[in-house]
Amino acid sequence: MNLVRSKLRIAITRSLAIVSCSVGLAINAFSQTATDACGYNVGNKYTVNASCTFQTFNKPGSFSQTYTPAGCGGSNHDDAWGWFTATSTNTYITYDPNNLDRPIMHVFTGACGSLAGVGCVDAGGNGSNANLQLTTLIGTNYMVRIQRHSGNSGMNGRICIWNIPPPPENDEPCNAILLDISDNCAPVPATNASATASAGIPPPGCGNYLGGDVWFQFVAPASGMIRVEAGTNSMTDTGMALYAATACAGTFTLISCDDDGGTGNMSLILSSAIIPGNIYYIRVWGNGGAWGTFNICATNAGPPPNDEPCGAINLNLTSTCTYDLYSNNNATSTLNIPAPACGIYGGNDVWFSFVAPPSGLVTIRTLAGSMTNLDMAVYTATTCSGPFTLILCDAASGPGNMPFLTLTPLELVAGQTYYLRVWGASGTVGNFDLCANTAPAADCVYALRMYDSQGDGWGASNVSVQVGAGPAVAYTNTNSDQEVAYIPVTIGQVVQLSYNSGGSGQGEIQYILQLMYGVVYSDGPTPGTGLRYAGTANCQSPAPATSDCYGHTGICNAQLINANPTNTGLTADLNLNNRGCLGSNERQGAWYSFRPSNGGTLAFTISPTNSGDDYDFAIWGPFVSLTCPPRVPPTRCNYSGATGNTGLSTTATNPSEGASGSKWSTAMTVATGEYYFMYISNWSQSGLAFNLTWQLTNGASLDCTLLPVELLGLNGYPVPEGIHLEWSTATEMNSASFAVERMNADGSFGQIGELPAAGNSASTINYQFLDEHPLTGFNHYRLKMTDIHGTSKMSDLIAVMHRYEFVRGAIHPNPATDRIILELELLEGDMITMSVLDASGRLVRRDQQTLSEGTVRAAMDVSGLESGFYEFVATTSSGATLHAGRFMKE
Known about the structure:
Helix content: under 10%
Structural class: mainly beta
Radius of gyration: 41 Å
Largest sheet: 7 strands, mixed
Number of helices: 1
CATH topology of the largest domain: Jelly Rolls
Number of strands: 62
Mean pLDDT: 86
Shape: elongated
Strand content: 35-45%
């Protein structure tokens, strides 16, 4: 068999040989010496190797012509001789001249006097290799003759003789390698070394096909779109064809053929002419018949399955962050959902979903992959078809300017499904890593939120938290705008927090210790060092902070307002959809609500105590009821960059002012009974206070009874019949009902009963309710208080253990003057520890009493406490919680 290939077409050169897939070119020359005449001598016998390993083969100018062969330009010019013994049925020979000479090679069998030609090749050009592939008989001797084309001058060079390895497994379609379809290219190593031309299938018509093809197959994805691409290795120029076939040995129909559509001279096929679920074949070969190694991958060229919300990938929330790889390749823009409120939205979004856990705590983190500029947003929706309401959005708060979202019970309702939208900034596509985690199971969980205003981390600074007798754990922010740590606790454990300063940049550092809906402790910028907080965990939520909409302060009459906002709270209430002119969203701010008791004209003046501070504000409304946060743009807004006084004025001309505008926006005409939100923001973030004074004219007045009930406290305790709940109100105005809600096993709340309210009252009224079918373990309760107008407000949560054999009654009296009493039924005598904590969580009173078996009463002196609300916790000697509740000290 004669096979003539030029240097360019066989990809074997002076410096590189890639004919064998398993072993590369070896350039060491062996000591065999070609002879002037034909002869089977020891000195001119050349070794057959497993790969192309060159051996010296020179034709000096002193050699003479000894034989004139036929074919391939053979002539009566000087020649050199060598020989080998075949070790395989296929043998490959390459002669590589050192200079710009043109070699001609002939191979024979038989004795020197009766040579029989078996193959020959003319290199075809000066400096080109002479390459010859032979079918050989194992053990047979073969003589090799080399001459210089049309000349007798010397020609030095080298020769390699090696066995061609067997064809690869996928040399024919029936052994095609199955390619997995993925969203991202996962390269599969491949080779076509020793591959043959597939019989019975016509040449594909592109890529200079000369045989040497290998086969792959794939099952068409549901999208009906496929992308197959080849990547370089030792082979840098491929051809590729896509076929449909009746069977692997059946009739093949060409669908597409490509030569250099991929990177460099590699091939790429992108096709939508496939039927989902059908098997298709991919044929790959080296351009011009070259052999070598390459890689190949197949990806779904259609939109990913989570391209729309109804295909959202569910994120299974665990207590640890475990990253998974995702992609937005081929994703499209989601229609009928407004562009999110952060980043640079250019489409190509993908969707995820998660169910809010009982704790309401969820953190979503990302890591850069091929995509390094990612954005994401969380929405709430009744179904995957919408409508969608934006909750939170972020573009660059995490490490490496990747997005980071952390959600709280202020945003999430346990048991409800939420949707996460992820996209590449400006429409970029690629892969990324994402994880979502919640807090570990515990009686309750503190969330430590760590902020850095420059996003470059805290350096050696950290917050150290010790729970109970456990070791102190140091938490820090490494290199992002914010970080969060979840700290599980058991009721009755002492929680201690310290701050350790480590280096410069303390003015960039701030942290918040959160429990459920409120702030337990916060500090910074420039936090104090050493022990900053110590308290006994009672798992009762503090009231939401005024820096969050949920903690808004109700305004009574035309009262002077003085406040010193220091942070942005636990949740981002403002975004592009509702912030209006407040281009920086929340800075250091406080939320308020008001309701005109009479209509008229409303104006006010905000006066910073430091005239160099820049305060901004916005007002939303009117509403028929209040729901946090507001979902619409504000009615009045002022974002002026000037310092000094600001507010609403009857002489102003614009309802909204931007950064370059006036400090004054136009006064408002209000009507009786309307509800409004107001947010006042210290853009300067100085930590210095402001005063607000009202200018109410044309009969306007404000109503301080925004809520129907002044609730003194909700308490509960187990009894043999179930769990007994009781609460008291100091005043009621237009109150309609109290709905008792209990957290279900899936974290959602359901109503288990309802009591009518008093309507109007200026004195204390006591209420009680029996839950006859409590859940096993802790039961979480809250009250939904509704007035005659349909306005509702939720109380704080309480947790009550269903364990009636210990507790027979709640603490009383409530309110208390000099002592509180707890009635218990103990199965055996024990030492009981009773603790009282103030509103900040600080332990202010502790008492231990040894009680006997049976029905007993434990009294605790509270006469020295200041008036206000307190938390009460009773624990056994083993640390088990008997009771946790709230009382008021008069």
